[in-house]
Amino acid sequence: MTADRSPLADLGGFDEIIDVRSPAEFAEDHIPGAINCPVLDDAQRAEVGTLYKQVSPFEARKIGAALVSENIARHLRQRFLGKARDWKPLIYCWRGGNRSGSMTTVFRAIGWKASQLEGGYKTWRGHVVAQLGRLPRAFAFQVICGPTGSGKTRILQALAARGEQVLDLETLASHKGSVLGVLPGQPQPSQKWFETLLLCELERFDPARPVFVEAESRKIGRLHVPDTLIERIRTGECISIDATLAARVAFLLADYDYFLTMSDLLNERLAMLGSLHSAETMTRWRGMIAAADWPALVRELLEQHYDPLYRRSQAHNFSGYGALNDALAGGDPASFATDDLSATGITAIAARIVHSRTAQIA
Q1: Which of 109, 150, 222, 223 could, after both became Cys, cross-link 241 (CB 3.0–4.6 A)?
Q2: pTM reported for the whole predicted model
Q3: CA–CA separation, 225 vs 211, rounded Å?
Q4: Distance from the Cα of residue 217 to its chain's centroid
Q5: Which pLDDT does position 319 carry in this prediction?
Q6: Rounded mean pLDDT, 306-315
C-alpha cells in the first residue's frame, strides 16, 4: 500500500473522512461521519459524462480538470484553511480514482498527511453487504410480536431506555411498516443508506446479550430488510404483547393522530386496500373518514384487515410463533397481557419483559 492510499481497515486512524462524490451520490449512501466536499456537483458530473460519451474522453478530461480544480480551491478556502499541519484526512470517491486522487494530491502538496481510500466507496459498500450477510448470525434475537396497535415500537424504545440492546427497524426505515405507515414529511432513506445504518447498529451490539427487535415483514415501506437479518429474526424467540382491542384502538388514535387532519392522505393510503375488501366495505370506511368517526374506523380496520393479516403472517413466517403458542398453553411468561398502552403502561410492559428474562436466567 502506497503512502497516499489506505485500506478500509485503517478507517479509524484519520481526523476526518471526506467524500468528494456528487451530492446525489453522497445522499444515496456514504461512510458514516464523512463530510461531502464534491469536486464535481451533480450538474457538472452529468456535463462531463455527456462530453465523455458524445464528444471524446480528451474533451471531457479538460473540462473535468478545470471544474475539479475550481471546486477543490473553493473547498480549501471555505473549509480547510484553518487545519493544522498534522491534520490527517481520508479522501474517497466512487472507486478510488481521479476525483479523490486529485484532492489527495493537492492536500499532500500542501503538507497534510492526506490519504486516498483504496477502492473508494465501492470498497465500503462491499464491506456493508458482506457484514450484513455475516453479522446477524452472531446474535440471539428476542422478537416483540403482537397485532397492529400493540405498541411494539414504543416498547422497544422503552426497553432501550432500560439499557437493553434494541434494533429499531421502523425508526431506521422512517416508516411504521404498514399501508398506513408512511410518515408525513419524513421520506424513507435509500436502500443503501438503510443498510449502512443497520450495520452501524449491529456493530455496537454485544453478541453475549440478547437483541430485542420487532416482528417485521421483509419490506418496511419500500425498503427491504437484508436476507440474513430477516432470517435470523424469524428464528428468534417470540415475546407476545396481548393488548385488548380497546387499548390498541386508543393507542393508534394517539400514534397516528396526524391522519386526523390529513383526510386526503388517509383516503389515498386506504385505497391501496381496495383489491382486498369489497366495494361496500371501502365505501363504509370512506364514510367514517368523512364523518371523522375515527374510533369506529380504527376498530374495523383492526378487526377486518390487520388482525387476520397478522395471524396469517406470524404463523407462516416466525418459527418461534408456534413455540410461543405451545408455551402459552402451559402458562409460560412469554406473553404479556395489558389493557394500558399509554406511556406509563408501555414502560410497565418493558419492565415486565426485563424482569421475566432476568428471572428465567436466574
Answers
A1: 150
A2: 0.91
A3: 16
A4: 14
A5: 57
A6: 82
- How is residue 326 written as a grid cell? 405451545
**Catalytic residue (choose from 37, 93, 145, 238):** 93
d(CA 279, CA 269): 16
Contact (CB, 8 A) for 123 and 129:
no
The pLDDT value recorded for residue 328 is: 39
Task: Based on the residue annotation, tell me whether 93 is a catalytic residue of this protein.
Answer: yes
Q: For the chain, report the end-to-end CA distance as a whole number of angstroms.
A: 52
Q: What is the DSSP secondary structure assignment for residue 257, as one 8-state letter?
A: G
* Count of C-beta atoms within a 10 Å radius of residue 142: 22
Domains of the chain in sequence order: 5-129 (3.40.250.10), 139-361 (3.40.50)
Grid cell, residue 183, equals 410518515
Q: How confident is the model at residue 316 (pLDDT cuts 50, 70, 90)?
A: low
Residues whose CB is less than 8 angstroms from the CB of residue 43 and which lie 6 or more positions away in sequence, other chains included: none
Q: Can you tell me the distance from the alpha carbon of 258 to that of 256, in angstroms, rounded to the nearest whole number?
A: 5
Element (H, E) at 124: helix 120-134
- What amino acid is encoded at 298 in this protein? V
3-state secondary structure at position 226: coil
